Each structure stands twice: as structure tokens, then as C-alpha cells.
Amino acid sequence: MNIEEIRLSFSSLKAFGASPAHFAHYKKRTFKTSAAMRRGKLTHTLTLEPHLRDTLKVIDCTTRAAKAYKEAAAIHGEDDVYTRTEVEAAQNLADRVHAHPLAHKLITRAVEVEKHLYWQLEGVDFHGYADVIGRDYIADLKVTDNEPRKLQRWVLDNLYHMQLALYSYAEFNMHSVVKHYLITIDPNAPHGVVVYQLSADFIEDGIRRAKLEVRMFKEWYKDWDGESTPLSYDMFEEGEAVQLDLPSWYR
Questions:
Q1: Residue numbers of the domain that contains 21
Q2: pTM, full prediction
């Protein structure tokens, strides 16, 4: 396959980081929006672009099982129609975010929100959407359980430090004075808001990880035929069971 004919994103690179099979599935998938994705998309819109609320197709019903919702979804598409309950819940989350002084400041003082970025890394084209771009900072809005004891592992498991690093690389070329934030809102009551600033070590590790994944991707992609299904986690087996032991931090 020709590397010059593909444009990656954070999500597709993250899929490849799991395994080549995950990447192949990601590229060929039939996308189905989950309830959590709908909530996240709606919360992003109402938090970052509240002026777009009047453009939403909102049906006065409580569930998507209602006849009125199904009729509207059949016309406009399910992903573009929301129930009154969904909008009210997302608006509540958006209001909570803006009630947080630092979160409100980061959003309202932004130079751009939902900016579509294009860049190259290790000779490969990329694109992505940055939630919040300030003059000397970049921030991403996450709807998640944001308990501080869990966030460090959550960021690493989901590679969100790599996502921020990639967007910072695209917009600021990894300038040292740039600050990197995660604005988090818990979807569950009492809907706590916490703003996390990622350390320089976090961001440096994120871009290092991204460059490593891109180099491995280039080596694999040039020999892939674009159709066959690569190996997934079963590539580790080699005919034997994979040994599972207690992690070092548990002992």
C-alpha cells in the first residue's frame, strides 16, 4: 500500500497501536453511534458552540423509542435528531462546565474551538479536531468519570496524552510554553468538573509514542494488501498460552 495515499487520525493510529487487525477493522467498520457517543457529541456542541443549539433537531419526547422521534430520524437520520431529554441532560453538563471558573476561562478565551487540523508526522499525513485552541494553550473536553485517582491511568490507557501532543504538534509545533489541559465532566451526578493540566513529561511521552507508532505503521502498511485481515492479539500466542502474572505494582 502507498503511504502517500492515506491520511491518519489519532483514532486510527490508536487502533493500530492495539494491533494491525484493529486498524483494518477501524478502516472498514460500519459506524454505529452509541448512547455515550451521542451524549459526548451533544455536550461538546452545547459547551463549545452553544450558538448551534437552535440548529439542533430536537423532538419533544423522552426516549428514542417514541413514535415522533422515529419519524424524525427516518427523515433526517438518527445521528442528527435528539430527544428533549437528551438535550436537557447535555445542557446540564455544559452549564456545569461553564460554572467552573478555569474551564469557563479556557473555553471563552479560546482563539478557536473545534478546529480542523492538518499536519505531517514522520512523513505521514494526519488530520484531527482540536476542541479548544488558545493563544498559548490547547484543551480537550472529556465526558468521563473524572476521579483524580483514576485519571492518570485512564489517560495512559486511552492515549489521550498522545492525542493532545499530536494536536499541539500540529498547531504549535510542540512549543515549550504551551500548556495542555483536559477539561473533564462526570456524566453521573453530582457531575463534578475537574481541569487537569498535563505535565511536560506526559506530552513528551505522547509525541514519542506517536512517532514510534507511525514508524511501525509505515513498515507494516507498505506490505499490507488492503484487504486481508492481519493478526490481532493472537499474534502473541505462537501456539502457546500467554502467561498472565500479577503486575509489579500489585505486589
A1: 8-225
A2: 0.90
